[in-house]
Amino acid sequence: MSMQDELAAKRRTAHDVVDLIRDGDVVVAPTGVGEPPSILEALSERRREKRGVIVSQILPMRPYEYFDQQTLEHVRHTSLFFGGPSRPGGRDGWIDYRPSYFSEMPGLFREGLLPVDVVVTIASPMDAHGFFSISLAPDYTMAAIEQARTVIVEVNPHVPYAYGDCFVHISQVDAVVEDDRPLIEVGLPQIGPVQKAIGGYVAELIPDGATVQIGYGAIPDAVVMQLTDRRDLGVHTEMIGDGILTLVESGAVTNQAKNIDRGHMKATFALGSRRLYDFMDHNPALQMHPVDITNDPYLAGRIDNLHTINATMQIDFLGQCGSESLGPVPHSGTGGQSDFVRAGNRSRGGKSFIVLPSTAKNDTISRIVPMLTAGTHVSTSKNDIDYVVTEYGVARLRGRTNRERAQALIDIAHPNFREELAQGAAAMRIM
Fold this sequence. Notes:
By secondary structure, the chain is α/β, with parallel strands linked by helices. It is 28% helix and 21% strand.
């Protein structure tokens, strides 16, 4: 049988492939735009026919009907990182959360600690050699495919055919669904004066020839906007988005100074505009890889001059970062922040930046606090933290005492809160 004949034999409708999902199955979907909408919509429509099915995913993008507290006995979502559709259920307790470093998820699938029975993923059209490119999110999906009983791909002509370790062969696939709707697009966040000021402080510390990892958000993108005059930057990141595309288009990114993967940029998932997806298509300068390749602190830390930029919501005097919750109420998840903080610390000539505005709620709350709000999930530990940046400056905490850390953070807090924070430090007998 030729590969085209095999493809024809495996074509199914989205409605029909739901029959391949058994009661009690764990269905794994990729991160963000990598999710297959027609398959998940069909599962939503037929969810009352199932019992005990779990959908496990990072950062869902669409509010599928199975996000439904009334039908949990049929299909239930388990989050690896909360997104807009899953966050309300996580906060109300009817969506479960599995904490994990992003870099370790492929290994957890291989060890059976993260269960998987069925993988559903969006993919590019099949090439002449029988391969689909799951370019938008190979992340943990490649490892889940290795372990799954059933693999279903949703082929969409808008999905870019990217290179790297992101290929699935027709022989690995049990069913193919076809859909041609446009991909979800996410543009650049709005950047205000606070974000621009923070971005300026970080950009001053990133030299020509550095390799950068950029997290998602207004502050990381504000950094990007102030790096367009750099030369020979490299990219090794978790998410590739329009901010990095802006750097590439400015000529700042050449990847020629990288000591590893010279000439190539690496990422594990994409989230951006149509321009970004077009840029990814058949682009030999970009490689999409599983997250245990991009995010592993040991592997990424071998890259010289790696500069990592990630945001947090709250930081205490010791440098503990609450980046995924305020108190016990979840907002996002662990993701790759800790992975890249450690990688930046390991890198020869590297730096890791944690960025945050000094205040929240119209300057009524300080984000720098003596102690994290009770119950807050610690995303980055006091032993890993290095540079912290607000709109009032830069505090370097690595190697400093608790007294020195508290003073450095107070110095970059909003002026309205510095006296109060100093009193807090005295009450804790830190200062």
